[in-house]
Fold these 4 entries.
Entry 1:
Amino acid sequence: SSRNLSPCPLPEMANIQRKRLVSAVLGLVISAGAIFTLIAIVSPGDLKSAFSAFNPLYIAPFALTVALMVVCFGYRWHVLLRGAISKPMAVKAMLINMGGNMVLPARGGDLLRIHFSNAVGNAPVAVVVGAMFTEKAADLLAICLIGTLGGMVLGLGDAAHRAVIASSAVICLFVVASLTVVRTKNSLVQRICLWTFTKMRRDKFFHEHVSQLIASLGENLQLCRFARTMAITLVLWLTIHGASYLCIARLVGVSLSYPEALLVLWVSGLGLMIPAAPSGLGVYHATVVSAFYFLGRPISEGLVLATALHLSFFVALVVPMGLLYGKWLLKRSLTQ
């Protein structure tokens, strides 16, 4: 059973902790560098004038888009786990995940979702992790398609347009090729991984964890199942997620069209894959600013929008996540 796993040996645990520390320090360094760069290129006067058009009427619509986002992404998680956890629990898992990523380094909210889903459902850890890998692949493909669509609709300059199309196409082809190999050559992938882990003298770990993970990935990548996941993902990113960016742009008085919002969403989505401090502090802001530079817009507006987006999502996700996760931990401790 996945819930009765033997504890890691002390040397291995120490090694894991060292890797986490290195990852956290690297993220902080990258974030600090991004923040200092932004401070150097944006004047305080530009920021002050850009923030002067605050419109609180868009707070409620933004809160609604965030709630819809959590519910819909939670439903997708329920689908990916094939009903191993109920829809309400899947929504709670997603809220814990999204809020956790805002306060924990190295996207630690993902680990919280794995732990929560395994604790409240019947799916083994390998199955949960396999579902998450499938979800991340669908998100990456959706982001690249959205960037391509935004660039085409905006009719950017030839060089910029080619850069958007080329980068999106390369990422899409790499992801599709990788997923195709895992789906159609699952047994071959298993043998290659077994050989690799055996050479590292970790064949026991492979049989206990990795083998089931690869098999779960292959099942999730069946054409009909993955097509359903992609359809849900594209609709969510194109509608609710895009609408949340538009709401915050209106909130701080930044003029942003829907295609421009999609392009900002594309760049910021790719930027969040870079190791950084919790919630992508600094790096996220830099990617949004780069999108505005890409669009030929004032970078001060990009920094205003990035700051407003970061703060708004932080408040909207972290507060309910903290209450929910604390309540769950308390209830679990009382019942044990």
Entry 2:
Amino acid sequence: QPSWELFFAENRRWFSENRDPDARARRLRDLVTGALDQLVTVQDRVFAMRYLAGLPGGGAALSEAHVALVLKAVGAERAANEFVAEAVDLLVPAAGSAAAEGLIDALADKIGPGSQALLVRLCESLPEDEVLRLGGDDRWKVRRAAVGALAASPSPGASAVLAERLKDGEVMVRVAAAEVLARRKDPAVQPALGEMLAPGMPMEVRGTAAYACGLLGTREARDALRGPLFEDPSAEVKIRAIQGIEEGGDPESVPLLLETLDKVSDRIVRAAATTAIVRLETPELVEKLIERLQLTDALDPERVALVNVLARFRSDRPRTVLQA
């Protein structure tokens, strides 16, 4: 039997003698929260959180003492696992800012791929003035989460924090701020992106910077993309650059994608570039590519790339030209 069931076995007599629904619910809340430190597996703790959520009143019925016990149990976990996510689901809607700040403190040093997403979610549940304060926190994971939570805010305070985080001492915070500012099409981010594209930077940093340049879509950003696309040894960095161009929707970047088809041999990169061009299809782009096709001869490598791209467009005009 799961350990929580053994724990409740001692209380069967009480429950057999007490039928008041509110009293039973209070007793169950006390038992479940008190048992969190004694439950052996993550699965048991997840079940306990779901049980608490299903009691009358759900998380809203938890007292400050209950919340404190859940936060203590979360703090004891090494990683941001399923139990931690269940605790966030239960506490944040009910206990508000106090629980969110407690969970942020508990999550700031946790490992696991889900920790950052949970931190961003917790920051998003706070009033903006609190998030702005967390933008200057001494823990870099919290600063990065605050940057993510401010992504949709148009306020001058949010813009100031994002600009400040471009100079953060932790490169992952700078990368997060750069991506948010690139999505806002803020050209002031370009110098920071140039630094992040340096060969000595980790691949993840170079990839995100290349993606942000693609999103930005300025002339300077397009010039900066030549390094990731044609000089960086990592196919992943090239693909991230192409993804940024595709999501940014900049038709002026299509020549870079065509050049990628001409110069890069990696099949996955070439496929990504072709897909991006096709998704950027406009009547003007189709005519430009047809014009380029007509200027090439049969031995020109660009001709093959242009034919492959035009054949995938949805409109009838490219097919008519190719058939001719």
Entry 3:
Amino acid sequence: SYNVVTPIAIASQNAWYNVPPNWSNSLNIYFYDQNLSGLKTGYYSLSSTMSYVIFNYGTYGVSSSEQPWAVSWNALIEGTNNIGLSIMDHAENSINVSDLLKIRKDISAPTIVNPYPTAFDDYLGGPVDTMNHIQAYTFDNFSKIKDFYFAVSNNVGFGDWIPISVNVDVVTYNQPWVIPWSVIAGGLNDVWAQAVDRAGNIALSKVYTIKRDVTPPAVTHNMDLSVLDKWVRTKPATLSSVNIMFTDSESRLDDIFYEIRNDSQSVLYRYTITQNYNMPTYNRAWSVNWSDFPDNVTSQIWLLVSDNAGWLTTTKAMTVLKDTIAPTLSWQTH
């Protein structure tokens, strides 16, 4: 016969473990034989595949075995292990128990899957709908998923872990979740996911890098515009080769236009310098059409440059004074 003295072994067998539970190292399960021959051998088995010695008495007359014994953690497979017993006396009477207790072993971290790793390849100037339907998910085939979190790391630091779902009990958690725009700083933002299973194993994975562009395109030039400070009749050389640099080091330049406006800011003409450029710098010389400037008035050249994140820079580049009407001569005779 055998006697289970410590009930914690039975009460804890529904839990999952990633390290040996304390009770598995000192099982107070005692064995007795009141017959004449006495105990001979005692084994425990793991899911009926392997047997391990608990005791082996070579002499007759040992009526009891009351030493705590341990289950080998390394011998356990991942998953549910049924612990069985096989006890024999010297007369070869035996008792076999196939499922005395269970030990559930899980030493594998959950898996985090990102089915759309390129969802945020482009720089963003503001929130996009994709951030409201994040598809990265997690699963655990043994103890199941317990908690799922995300955090954002950027030039501000590593942010707090934000719960996606906590205290669940599912093999796969694949519900869409949200990344608030408020946690995204300017520059590069690494989005990390953390999954915890019910055995305490933790998985950590960088699932996205979100690039936030907070800087509009820049317009710079070193041109000598003093020639435009006076009224001119013919096209100045400055307007035949306009050297203005456009830059955007984050999301890159998209479209560049120039406009000719009158003093009341009405747009007379708009021309394309480049479109869909997708480079960080544009510094090629370009020319304006002199005939587009109205005669005998003050006109202005304005620049409009956008980037791929949606930022737009609008700036006045220069003022043009065009006078093509000759002076009027009048006299009186006496």
Entry 4:
Amino acid sequence: GKQSELEINSVIQEQTREIDSLRKVYLNHPKDEDIINLLIDKYLLIDQDSNALVLTDELIFLQNKLQDHNEVARIRVLKHDILMRLGKGEEGILVLMKNIENQDKISSQNLTDTYSEMAAYYTSTYEIEKALEYAKKSEKIYMISHDSIGLAYTYYAIAISYLTVDRLQESLEYFEKAYLYCTSERYRNTAIILINISLIMSDLNRNDEALEKLRIVDSIAAKHEIINLIPEIKKLYGIVYYNKQDYDKSLSYCLQGIKLAANLTVNARYKSSINKYAGYNYYKKGEYDQAVYFLQQALNNDEYLVDLYEANDASEYPLIDAYAKIGHFKDAYDLL
């Protein structure tokens, strides 16, 4: 990792100070759109999505008064993106439908951005054909307008659609297209695309290539202080080294990620995933007490986590087996 825990905490404090300062300006100038947009960006950077969402409603209210249909459409797309991050996609799709209803009043740019967001929503609901239909609509318009950022986003949406149904080779192809079109100033998007490329490469047993991509992500996150990606990067190093059967190195990264996550906003899915890999490493090393602790943490953090019980070459049920190895037969039996 490029940044120490001390450096990361220092950056978090600095970003929090910036937000506090901007909030003071906003309270004195509540109708200043530039300040509101800047504040939304800062909130999203440190995963304060709920605060960002409130401000999108402020912007929509202001722009509706000015009857600026294009700006309202742009903010609706942003609002949908935030609602998706908050797990409220059904609410978000209703916001996007307003853009579709008013498509004769908005620019082709905003319409294609809307199509891309709809593709993202239908991917999240596993309606892959619908997702691809909207993604292809936006691709067509972006190709005509030579919009590289739009194309990057569209290819990303298509890649996620394929990833959702485990079509890894096609997903990788579109993530690599997205990376090709992603411009250098979109460093956060670039990092997220590379994270996905790395993960798929590791799933395809191309672990050395996966590590190469991760090192690029690591340097981007450090250079641009994308603090909320650091735990994810640690986790991915953990996964790749686990797949390479380097359990000591994998465990080291997993434990770093768990420690960092305590100081940052991360979701339960992240906690379950990184604890799972920490547990798997301890299991492989024969340290069953620790394996039980971390695998149980994984289970506690995510009601949707099913792959604790999927085949794992040393044992079909690592958590159950680890409980049995330390003599906790009742706990093992309860999980059957």
